[in-house]
Predict the 3D structure of the following.
Amino acid sequence: MIGTGYVGLVSGTCFADIGHQVICVDKDKRKIEKLNASISPIYEPGLDELIKKNFISKRLSFTTNIDKAINTSDIIFICVGTPARKGSIKVDLSFVFKCTKEIFKYSKRKKIIVTKSTVPIGTGDVIEKLLKKKKKLFTVISNPEFLREGEAIRDFRYPDRIVIGSNEKKVFNIMRKLYSPLINKGSKFFTTSRRGSELIKYASNAFLATKITFINELANLCEKSGVNIEDISLGMGSDSRIGGRFLRAGPAYGGSCFPKDTKGLVSAADKFKINLSVVKSVIKSNQNRVNLLTQRVHKILGSNIKNKKISFLGVTFKPNTDDMRDSTSLKMIPYLCKKGAKVNYYDPSGEKKELRKIKNCNYRSNIKSNCNGADLVVLLTEWDEFKSIDFKKIVKNSKFKVFDLRNLYSPAEMKKNKIKYYSVGRPNSI
């Protein structure tokens, strides 16, 4: 596994756990030192224990020696980052191509090269061209990952489907054998062309992002028309053709996948002169969502929020992860601080380096110290420990308000406790 980021580390550890010999390689010496001490550099429930178990059993190893890692392996997974280029919707594939050149440089015998990283249509073709002088040594295939942060180990063990894309059919049997412990438990093994596999990943994420954006826009309509968005979600989701997942109104989508993959899909379509107008609208609507929720803080506290104490519960883009990429908090908090508000935040995954340099923004180590004296408590991430908070006991301000971006709390209970409460897509939302 080349790359020990989220995809490489989780996939590598789980492959070891189903019986394979796995070498995870990375140029970051500190990261490899941590991993050799069985310390995961990322927050993922259950991962530390799984790393330790398979490291002790000698099925899993970590190294910075890419030459040795490549030449002692039969299958090489490319698991490096594919971020969006700064100020662009295009995908930065420089890490993938750099990795490809190193595989070319060090390989001395036949290898199957698997792109696990999310890449645009045709990336496998470019990789093949870079390897053409040693063409007979390599088979290049696509095997996208579908791991949800916070649920990644379970998603690996019980995937909805395993997608393999190759232009050479003989490789399907090898990959089927690799995944046989999962297939034997009922996972669907789906084969297609390499380009087909590359597009399936982008299309899947863009569709899920569309569902989130759709329900968020409907939430705006519900607020104006006195309808409860949760009734709409249940009514729609009960239709088996639609399904209830990803139909929860809330903040803009974020994380390592949806923002860059929707842009990456549009960029790939532009290359083929195809206008993906729906996906473009999703991207625009999601960006507007952050601004809309930020402006609602003004509606709750007034136009002048200078010296107002605002406490955030959760700042990651979703619970059970420490991932801050494209989280709504990264736009809301700097804006509020710039307007003179004093912001505290608490997140179960710890302090965030992304928020350290923001003036008037401070990390608190527990819920009580975070919320004490707040004028407004903003529930941004629905961690389990936030689900049954007794606000009356921890907020020493009789006039405080709660803005619940995840509809975690009951409006009736809040009213009973005489707490001014605002949520998303419900009657009387602001």
User: Anything to note?
Assistant: The chain has a mean pLDDT of 96. The radius of gyration is 23 Å.
